[in-house]
Amino acid sequence: MVPLVVRPAAQATELAALLRQHGHAPLCCPLLETRPGSELPHLPELLPQTDIIIAVSAHAVKFAHHFLLQTGLTWPHIDYFAVGQASTDAFSEVGVQALCPTDPRSEGLLALPPLQGVSGKRVLILRGNDGRDLIARTLASRGALVHYCATYERHYPELDGDALTRHWQAAGLDSLLITSGELLQRLLALVPGPQRPWLYDRLLVVPSPRVAEMAEGAGFTRIVIAQGASNQALVAALELRKME
């Protein structure tokens, strides 16, 4: 298959290599760049006052860990949670065990038994410079004291959507690997209106029911939900569909 990879450059390279190992011919076009977040310097004062750390993405973990290495700090011995498998794997890579729900969404995380009785607990949420506030609002309603730390920031490169779409069509693009609602919206904004029917007919692999609902609402008709946003989960979903 000829899938489109839109993850930030470092992850896109890893995912493309994995796809090639499985016989696919990926096209890479990072739609998003990630950079260190402006709130990273607050970590030294936040970590000693925290009982629970929640990561909403692998980027949040990686940028935080890089900052800790630079400053000589280590992850404290407290409770860790991750929204999806990619975030869990990122924690695991730095020696931290995090609990992850089978439902890789904020709703799935909030349903975990250990996060029910959090009254008086101090919770730190590692994330990008924006995003959903469901986790913070819900935990605060349960009595937790919640703080955010934007460990990374998103930036969008300037791209020629018309030229890219024509290139993808000429290359025989037949599938899309989209790992977030944000990337889905970015792709939709990039592809010109007259080319949308072609786009909607591509096989779309997404990481969660929430993103699948967004895609269905936009007009996509062939949607596969992977077991999370990790590179392995995306490739496994594509391989499963290839064998059908």
UniProtKB/TrEMBL annotation:
Its EC number is 4.2.1.75. It holds the Pfam family HEM4. GO terms for molecular function: uroporphyrinogen-III synthase activity. It catalyses: hydroxymethylbilane = uroporphyrinogen III + H2O. The keyword Lyase applies. CDD domains: HemD. It is an enzyme of class 4 (lyase). This is Uroporphyrinogen-III synthase.
